[in-house]
Amino acid sequence: MRVQLPSCPHIRQPINTFMETKVCSKCDKSLPLTSFTRDRYRVDGFHRECKICKRKRENARRDLYRKQLNARNRKRAREYRKEFCKFKETLSCKKCGENEVCCLDFHHLDPNEKEFGIAHASQRMSLERLMEEVKKCLVVCKNCHTKIHAGIIQI
């Protein structure tokens, strides 16, 4: 494949007006032009890195971003769990008065309005969404919650 290149007076080195290969700026290999992506802003019309080197660079950047994003999400989840635990410490069972945090459950009054289960969502949802879902619930201890589902206790 031969490409006719325009002459550029502002470039110091002479341009080869007919080129079939190009040297990758990363791996320093002379490769055919089909190994380079097109770049309309470059004088020769091709990206300076070959497709393989460009892919490696983009994958490394994507992996770094993914690690940073995961770390940020884990930190945010820890903060949400702490805040939710502080909120839960202020609650008690509406039936028997149990106030031990590890014993409290959230019973949805209307199962049709339930968007998600609060116990599992407290690790991955924002506090605002959690609080909206808590408003649809009745706070009960695990024993009372089981009795409600068994039909022993009426709400």
Using brief descriptors, characterize the structure shown.
155 residues, alpha+beta, Wheat Germ Agglutinin (Isolectin 2), domain 1, 2 domains, two-stranded antiparallel ribbon, 4 helices
Short synopsis of the structure:
It is built from 4 helices and 8 strands, in the order ββββββαβααβα. The protein has helices at residues 51-89, 118-121, 127-134, 142-150; strands at 3-4, 18-19, 21-23, 30-32, 36-38, 46-50, 104-108, 137-141.
What does this structure look like?
There is one protein chain. The chain is an alpha+beta fold and 155 residues long. The chain has two domains: 3-55, Wheat Germ Agglutinin (Isolectin 2), domain 1, CATH 3.30.60; 57-150, no CATH class. The chain has helices spanning 51-89, 118-121, 127-134, 142-150; strands spanning 3-4, 18-19, 21-23, 30-32, 36-38, 46-50, 104-108, 137-141. A two-stranded antiparallel ribbon has the order 1-2. Strand 3 and strand 4 (30-32) form a beta hairpin. The model is unreliable at 11-17 (pLDDT under 50).
Blueprint (SSEs and pairs):
Elements: E1 3-4, E2 18-19, E3 21-23, E4 30-32, E5 36-38, E6 46-50, H1 51-89, E7 104-108, H2 118-121, H3 127-134, E8 137-141, H4 142-150
Antiparallel strand pairs: 1-2, 3-4, 5-6, 7-8
Main beta sheet strand tally, sense and closure: 2 strands, antiparallel
Put simply, the count of helices is: 4
Integer count of domains? 2
- Helix/strand-derived category reads alpha+beta
Low-confidence stretches: 11-17
Taken in chain order, the helices and strands follow as: EEEEEEHEHHEH
What's the end-to-end separation, in Å?
79 Å
Oligomer classification: single chain
From the alpha carbons, calculate the radius of gyration and give it in angstroms.
31 Å
> Beta-strand level of the residues, as a percent range?
15-25%
Biggest sheet strand order reads 1-2
